[in-house]
Amino acid sequence: xxxxxxxxxxxxxxxxxxxxxxxxxxxxxxxxxxxxxxxxxxxxxxxxxxxxxxxxxxxxxxxxxxxxxxxxxxxxxxxxxxxxxxxxxxxxxxxxxxxxxxxxxxxxxxxxxxxxxxxxxxxxxxxxxxxxxxxxxxxxxxxxxxxxxxxxxxxxxxxxxxxxxxxxxxxxxxxxxxxxxxxxxxxxxxx
Length: 191
Fold this sequence. Notes:
Elements: H1 3-17, H2 27-30, H3 39-57, H4 61-70, H5 75-78, H6 83-86, H7 94-101, H8 107-122, H9 126-148, H10 154-162, H11 168-178, H12 187-190
Helix pairs in contact: 3-4, 3-9, 4-8, 4-9, 7-8, 9-10, 9-11
Protein name: 5'-deoxynucleotidase
Pfam families: HD_3
GO molecular function, one term: 5'-deoxynucleotidase activity
């Protein structure tokens, strides 16, 4: 493949990732949220949470943020399948979807992103553990925000997801978030 074709393949991947800004997180529809967050919004805050958790847990923040950034990129092709739906479907592995997404990309880009996704899906390092907790903690925080907006059915999702947290830091942050309003951060500036 020529350099121009590889550049087009890589640019095509980047354009495809734009679909994450439009794709909604479907699990929230189940609890009645009419306009849930997008996959990209979830991934952005997951990456931030991942970096913070990594700092608290002594893991590599940049590595965790990178793992979190790419953790749901496959959803451009398979959609955001909620947990209840996964019981009835057999979907391609995220690693395989990523391989297809990057088939025409620059070889270094394809190898780099593939390695990140493979690590997130099958790794057992502290960074992977923290990245998985970041994904869950983001869901907990988003659920708390939806509860605050009146979506009472989000409570079960918050509690179930929270029970799956593994790191002490993620559990502590979930506990703290439970006691706060989503606007508590600005109260200092309003005084």
